[in-house]
Amino acid sequence: MLKKILIGLAVVLLVLIVVIAMQPSDFRISRSAAIPAPPATVFAEVNELKNWEGWSPWAKMDPSMKQTYEGPAAGTGAISHWAGNSQVGEGQMTITESKPDELVRIKLDFIKPMAATNDVQFDFKPQGTETLVTWTMSGKSNFVGKAFGLFMDMEKMLGGQFEQGLAQLKTAATAKAAQ
């Protein structure tokens, strides 16, 4: 009887491994919001990493998160390191490309809770008196990431955080535009 149980568990484990291995390696999460402010105002909020403290959803998850900055204050080469609670983990963001009022590209390196490197991009498109901001993160999922994705809907979880961040970015940029 024990032998049959062990064989059954081995078969289930093998099937699970195959299902996980067959999951897509690439992922992409994207959200957009119209912000009633000029592109230059919204761009400045994203392009200067210290500004993220005012609108990033992860800053709200851990108000005591430790952040350090190096390189230029804004634009290409600006770097932010963070270390926080289990919800925000630890990592580094580096702006790799910055085109005024058009786009900001960021290399996002996670250290904890799970090592990963992702690409983040913010696009800014004028639409009358508003700016359409699109926040996209893409990357590769390793085996552990694929397994996690079977049980957690990363699109919904991170997409919701992007939506929250864009709403808070809207508040911050609208306030600055009114000044």
Automatic annotation (TrEMBL):
<dbReference type="Pfam" id="PF10604">
    <property type="entry name" value="Polyketide_cyc2"/>
</dbReference>
<dbReference type="InterPro" id="IPR023393">
    <property type="entry name" value="START-like_dom_sf"/>
</dbReference>
<dbReference type="InterPro" id="IPR019587">
    <property type="entry name" value="Polyketide_cyclase/dehydratase"/>
</dbReference>
<protein>
    <submittedName>
        <fullName>SRPBCC family protein</fullName>
    </submittedName>
</protein>
